[in-house]
Amino acid sequence: MYTKLALLIDGEWIEETKAGGETVLNPATEQSLGNLPHAGKPELDRALAAASRAFESWKRTSPFERARILRRAADLMRERLDHIATVLTLEEGKTLAEAKGEITAAAEFFDWFAEEGRRSYGRIIPARLADMRQTVTQEPVGPVACFTPWNFPAVTPARKIAPALAAGCTCIIKPAEETPGTTLEIARALTDAGLPKGVLNVVFGVPSEVSEYLIRSPIIRKISFTGSTPVGRHLARIAGETLTLATMELGGHAPVIVAKDADVQRAAELSMAIKLRNTGQVCTSPTRFFVERPIYEEYLEHARAFVKKQVVGDGLQSGTTVGPMANTRRIAAMDDLIADALSHQARLVTGGERINASGLMYMPTILADIPDQARAMTEEPFGPLALVQSVDDIEQGLARANALPYGLAGYAFTRSAATANRISEAMEVGVIGINQMVVTIPETPFGGIGDSGWGREGGIEGLESYTVRKYVGHLHVL
């Protein structure tokens, strides 16, 4: 059911290295899925050389041909949906239904960028001289290095690999060592679709060692990182030393404002459903809920009732709606944040502890009346924890929503166009959902501000981030 673990370097699958490896675990059972090989310096040097060599031909490959390969890979991902989704659930824990949705979304990124790569337009600038021609073209930036986390092992790599390849760049990607199989299945789809060897290389290893080695290489001209803010700061400093371009999609602590004129039951049920998506292990997960006082208790009751109906268990089991936490670190973090909040007199509405069963299961938790002094109000929980406060009005809600340096995603529920416009303009985030909570699809730009990073993935911006503009001023001389 699981996949064969390996490195992919210059078209070769490498199952063993002198650098050793590590065990990949199933979070639902805490049993081994397989041994993942690590890349040492020889493998990284080989991957860099392959990416550099392949770039010379891939950048000259027509956008039409590049698109054909990416579309075929997307088709193969859909044909292999059941298998890849099972791999994803086994290594990450989310429900099989969520895994299938993620694989489908990842394929859509390849579809979108296959076509967007054919529309990487330049422009002609009217010249001051009659015999002058001024043009601007977009060219691939060069070999890129991408680093992705464990929580979305299909969509996040796809959001980086697809635009890089569509733009004409070659790519070395280091997915999370905890969830390697899903990205490897995407790589297999690409190679089976006819991607030339060396255009995509997949490596694993000690994260800090691999990332620093790749970023410091003069071959790498851009990096794209999704992960925590502290790690992002560190990698950005290294990239700055070599003037390497960077896209950083970092942490969040997403606010939700629920206005008193909202459909309270719908707002509560939808926001809790999205809160529990991937067991809350989502950078855009709604976490800080600011509810206007007249509907506060009603909102809490609807939220509690919805959460109590959820079934926590193995993501492969029928009927499971919330899977396990992905690793023991998240269990410890949840315990610490909840204990701290309760010590500050937060009210436990439901949940609050690990489920005594096999696997890393945790009860979906709602805390109400949580004071700003509680650590959870400033530290991203990255788990099934909802923090609910009452506010006097929308302006107080906005002030609390904007109180943190994070600015990735935000949400609001209201029937008033004026309130929706006010929140859209004043909430300091990169993406906002009003009366709905889908804030990233292939054709729209995604990214944050402040401590949530810089740059955008998805949309036309996602392709442009892998290109550089070249101006040519050509004077016709007779």
Structural write-up:
The chain is α/β, with parallel strands linked by helices and 478 residues long. The chain has 2 domains: 7-250 and 452-472, Aldehyde Dehydrogenase, Chain A, domain 1 (3-Layer(aba) Sandwich); 254-441, Aldehyde Dehydrogenase, Chain A, domain 2 (3-Layer(aba) Sandwich). It is 38% helix and 22% strand. The chain contains 14 helices and 22 strands. Helix 4 packs parallel to helix 5 and helix 7 (207-216) runs parallel beside helix 8 (229-241). The longest helix has 21 residues, at 96-116. The mean pLDDT is 97.
SS-derived structural category: alpha/beta
What general form does the structure show?
A: globular
The first-level CATH class of the largest domain is given as Alpha Beta
The CATH topology of the largest domain is: Aldehyde Dehydrogenase, Chain A, domain 1
Total of domains:
2
Counting DSSP E segments of at least 2 residues, the number of strands comes to: 22
Rg, please? Answer: 23 Å
Average pLDDT taken over every residue:
97
Estimated share of beta-strand residues: 15-25%
Specify the helix fraction band.
25-40%
Q: Supply the CATH architecture of the largest domain.
A: 3-Layer(aba) Sandwich
Per DSSP, the total helix count is 14
Outline the low-pLDDT stretches: none
